[in-house]
Cellobiose phosphorylase (Kineothrix alysoides), 811 residues
Amino acid sequence: MKFGFFDDSKKEYVITTPRTPLPWINYLGCNEFFSIISNTCGGYSFYKDAKLLRLTRYRYNDVPGDVNGKYFFIKDGDTVWNPGWQPTKTELDSYECRHGIGYSRFTSSKNDVQAQVLTFVPLGDNCEISSLKLTNNSSSAKTLSLFSYVEWCLWNADDDMKNFQRNLSIGEVEVIGSTIYHKTEYRERRNHYAVYSVNSKIDGFDTSRDDFLGAYRGADAPLAVENGACTGSIASGWSPIAAHQLNLSLQPGETKSFIFVLGYLENLQGEKWESSGIINKRPADEMLAKYQTDEDVEKAFARLNNYWDGLLSKYTVRSSNDKVDRMVNIWNQYQCMVTFNMSRSASYYESGIGRGMGFRDSCQDLLGFVHLIPDRARERIIDIASTQFQDGSAYHQYQPLTKKGNSDIGSGFNDDPLWLIAGTSAYVRETGDVSILTEMVPFDNDASVAAPLMEHLRRSLDYVITHKGPHKLPLIGRADWNDCLNLNCFSEHPGESFQTFGPSEGPVAESVFIAGMFVKYGEEYAQLCELMGMPTEAERARKEAELMNEAIIKDGWDGEWFIRAYDAYSNKIGSKECEEGKIFIEPQGFCSLAGVGVEEGLAKKALDSVKEKLDTEYGVMILQPAYTKYHLELGEVSSYPPGYKENAGIFCHNNPWVSIAETVIGRGDRAFEIYQKTCPAYVEEISEIHRTEPYVYAQMVAGRDAKFHGEAKNSWLTGTAAWTFVNISQYILGLYPTHTGLSINPCVPKNFGDFELTRQFREGNYTIKVQNPDNAEKGIKQIYVDGSPINGCVIPYVKGKTFYDVTVVMG
Ligand code: BGC
Ligand code: NOJ
């Protein structure tokens, strides 16, 4: 069952009922100011950091859910309604929500009044614009009142939920004309404030929540709206809000338009502000002046659309499969940008107050983002590397505002260092910019111990080399990619999640997954060494990768598949010898895609075992059989009920690893089958089962053992976005950036037909026609560039050449 449809021509998903199975959200903002908005106008805004600089409040665990947002109330006689249906839930005569690329648009009507709301964050300003238009579609004049409503958060969203003894006394506001200033903390050294303004003269306002809502009432029935009159309250402590009232009359057919702006402002460096708390309006005045007319809004909106059209034109496909085209050209790339911006911090499943930016997460997000805005990827790599420790290990997370490593969580996730190589390699292959490798980058943000980025990468590699266990496989530390495989924690803190205790190294427990990563990223590191004129170092890395490869085949192979790990007693995990958890997906995908056992036929066997033991109609499960009881020696993985999350859920993130591995061995049909199973455009049809947004990936779909098999959770912020884009764009459609040029080697299902690609790679624009006369799954007969045949599948990069006309004949 569907709750909407894709409108590809507008790059929108159109939701046709507010009663979606779960809130279906969108992200507004590309750089520093962000908002989350649901299909019923729930959500919140923040500047840079969802925890530390939260503008508007969101009430977690609220019942019913998703009822704090940026709302407009329309009072038409006795009827009060909202364009997004919530929070009054007055039945609408029509409703439509279009989530687009960086904007959302609502069109609804009630009693012959139509409301249109367009909301977006313009490029270059730290604000959210809501353009609201009301039209009278009846044959008689209407007199209406319009109310806006946002509830301020007292900046630190974590403290805001807890520290009531203080917070209920610190709220301060000021109202000047139609602008409501939220200036809590303004009198301190924190030189910032927020505004909510409208471009019309207002007929009333409220800034105290209790006065606007009334005692014992919620946003579903605000007293001021019911009375048709705001009270003019000036909040002092308690809960400051911003509500405007606008009274209007509309002739039949008439439309009136209002522009609301919610903004974040800082006094410029050195500019005086009044410690008495009197607001310095100037920064706000300057920003608000830019968005006063409909033309202003249209221009800003057009700029945003052009910006996105430009970004999304960097990689396009036209095939006979509109679902693939839709995901590649629109939604998958869009989600890559969102995960790049948010890491795992703020969604409807990540609270924005828990996690900051993940080291491994952000490095992986780069893989799907780097072609969009390489400059920002470069900056991000430097930020991430700056949190690395001198021994090559890394803080697992850092806070986006301060960019400093998070010492509450600390380090000890032994896959982290290698992801830095992955991200850097992707950046250099994409851009050819080797200057990043010589850039001086501090360790642990301490400039006195800086070293070139290349040296950071060396230490990443050496961290793994110097931390091996009894089978010469990498020590797992607190966990590897699978955060819940905590093989060293049991003796210290049984039953607790990894986040609650300190590093726990252990000299025995080993990870075959990290070993697979080492083989792949050891080679990528070696290639970087060659670019830097360091052949001896390249050779050393390749030797180490070869040793690792041997160790995997010797002690990481179980007969039919790769084992997952050795625990702290050197017992196998993910082996036929185990009672439960006999096979895990991660090493099958990653070792195979790294090339381990490909020649020996082991990879094929491993992937066949995946199909036989882990496959379901909704995707490939992370392990089987599920752990039915808690194992002290395994940690959090076995704490989940069977079928959920890391305990035998379909963890979408590593499905593309298996699909990529299938392309490595040339099985296009199977690679695509895996791609299809978790692909949002395909699961749209079963939205009543899948439940999360049908335009983006979710982290997890409940596995076969779960009660709600097929149900997704944790949508949006997942490495699935980047890895799936890597899979479809670089492996299935086959455009892989190398240091010497763009490589083309698709691996598609037999019935995929011919297709066309465009790609911007460095300063070149490539148009690529792929012909597949024999319906081959993989294989290149000949590539022609500008009419001339070339050898092999890499189109040599020619500096300064801007156009490449390419024809590829598969077979
Ligand atoms: C989850 C993991 C997550 C980790 C860190 C665990 O409870 O199962 O998926 O990565 O927490 O937040
Ligand atoms: C989600 C985390 O963000 C990611 O870093 C981790 O790899 C997966 N969960 C698997 O545990």
Observations:
- Residues 467 and 568 are 14 Å apart (CA to CA).
